[in-house]
Design a protein that fits this description.
The chain is of the alpha/beta class. The protein contains 13 helices and 14 strands.
Length: 416
Amino acid sequence: MRLSHRVSSLKPSATVAVMNRAAALKAAGVDVLNFSAGEPDFNSPQVAKDAAVAALGANQTKYLPTAGDPATRALIAEFVSTRNRIPNVTPDHVLITAGVKMALYLTMQALFDPPAAGQAPMEMLLPVPAWVSFAPIAELAGAKVVEMPTTTASGFKITPEQLRKAITPRSRVLLINTPSNPCSTMYTPDELAALAQVVAECAATIAPELVIVADELYQHIVFGGVPHKSIGSIPAVAERTITINGPGKSYAMTGWRLGWLSGSGEFGKQAVAAISKLQGQTITSVPGFSLAGMRAALSHADADLAAMRAQFAKRADLIFSRLSAIPKVQVAKPIGAFYAFPDVSAYFGKKSPGGKAIASAGDLAGALLEEQKMAVVPGEDFGGCGKNHIRMSFACGEAQIEEGCKRLAAFLGSLA
C-alpha cells in the first residue's frame, strides 16, 4: 500500500526522537542524563490539578464549543489584553487548541494554500536556528520556508535590514519566536518595534498579505533583564499578528496539551473563525475539565510561576558558566526559556574513544549518548548555523547540570 507523499517525505521531530531514545535506554535500566526534554521538571500547580479534579467531579466531561467555553476564552482575552498589551482582543478573537503545536498547525493551514500549477509557493520567513517543527508545519500547508540566518554573535536575532531584503510579494508569514527555542535569547522591545516597522512598510507596498505569527510560549520564563514584549502589541502590526501561547512551559503543564491563538481587530476575528472551522473538522474541542485547570493556573498560580522562574535563572547562570569554561565551545548566555545552545563545531573532524568519527552535531550527539550516556539534541534540524550546535535543556536539577557539563567536557577533551 502506498502512503501519501505528504507523510512519506515528512521527517520525524529530532527532539522527540532523542527524547524517545533516552526514555528507551532508561527503561532498559541505563542511567542516562537527559538534556533533550523541552519541558519543565516541576509539577503542575496544585491549584490547577485541584480545579481539574473538581471539574471531573462536577461531570464536566461533555463536548465544548469548538473554540472553547466562553469563560475560558474571556479569561484568555483578558490575559492577552493585560499581560501582552495587545489591543482589541475579545473572546471572539481567541481559539483554544490541543497544545501550541496544534495552534501553529491550524494557523498555517488557514494562511497557506498549495501553489497552483506553474506558480511559485507563498513564503514563510523564518529566523534560524528555530524550533524543529516550525518549518515542517509550514511546508505541510504548502509554504516555501525562507530561512534568515543568525549567529551566536548576533544573539540569534535577525536585523531589520535582513528582514527587509527577505520580503517579497510572495511573503505570507513572518514567524517570530521570543524567547527562543532553541537559542534562549530574546528580542528587546526596541528590536521588535524596528521589525514591526519593516513589516508595516512592506505590507503597504510589496507584501499586502504578510502576517506575523508570534510564538510566545516562553513569555514568562525570562530572567536576563530583557522584558518580554508581544510584537502584536505594536499598533502598526497589531491587526496583522496572530499570537500563539499556552500554559505548557510557563506553568509546567506540558502534558495537559493546551494552547491558544489570538488575533486583534477585524482580521483577528475572521482568522479565529476560519481556524475554528478547521478545528471543528479535526479534534472538535479540548476537554472541559482540563480548561478548569488552565483557568486556575492563569488566575492563581503566579507564585508557582515566579518560583520556577527563579530556579531557571539559577540554572541558566550555572550551565552558561560551565559550558563557557570548556575549551573551544562558544555559547550565548540564556536569558529566556530553558535551553543552552553551544557551538561545538571546533570538535568536528575528530574521533571518539569508541571509534566514532565526529563530522557533525548529529555524530557528536550520537557518540555522547552511546559513550557518556548523556542525551542532547543535535542542531541540524534547527536550521542555519544550528548544524554546528547541540541543544541542552536545563529543565533539570543543578546536580544534573554539573554532572552533564563534566561529562561533555570530558568527552570533548577525549576526542582525537
